[in-house]
Write a structure and sequence with these properties.
Shape: flat
Strand content: 5-15%
Structural class: mainly alpha
Strand order of the largest sheet: 1-2-3
Order of helices and strands: HEHEHHEH
Number of helices: 5
Low-confidence stretches: none
Mean pLDDT: 84
Length: 136
């Protein structure tokens, strides 16, 4: 039995190593943002859009802490509506505006940061993740 396990591991390792021995390489550039706190500056948005157009192998990702207010904009309205829903014991899914903005710019992925967990509301966090799954 022990011999079968060792042989299986060696076989898989051999396949992995031989599969990785191609002389071809691909350069991938990663553009990353973090701590957007509810808004994407116009300059950043334009820069990201231009880079995504120029290069084929570019990934645009966010490292978290995107959820926050935005000085009276769409995110503040989103939080105001959510607060009203909570106070009235309503469970309404409200689309997070920043998810739409990030899709329009061309984000490939986002990671959740501590700001996304502040509400301690699993259903709201699930809704935010759902918004990104639809958008990105």
């Amino acid at each position: 039995m022990k011999r079968k396990v060792v042989m299986t591991i060696l076989g898989i390792a051999t396949l992995l190593v031989s599969g990785c021995s191609t002389p071809k390489t691909t350069e991938i550039n990663v553009l990353a943002t973090t701590d957007l706190h509810g808004s994407i500056p116009y300059e950043l948005s334009e820069y990201a859009k231009n880079e995504l157009k120029k290069e084929e192998n570019v990934a645009l990702v966010d490292a978290g802490d995107f959820l926050d207010g935005d000085d009276g904009g769409a995110m503040d309205k989103y939080f105001e509506l959510r607060r009203g829903d909570y106070e009235n014991n309503k469970q309404i899914h409200r689309e997070m505006p920043l998810a739409k903005d990030m899709k329009e710019i061309g984000y490939d992925a986002v990671v959740l940061g501590n700001h996304e967990f502040v509400a301690k509301d699993k259903s709201e966090l699930s809704n935010i993740i759902s918004d990104f799954n639809k958008k990105i």
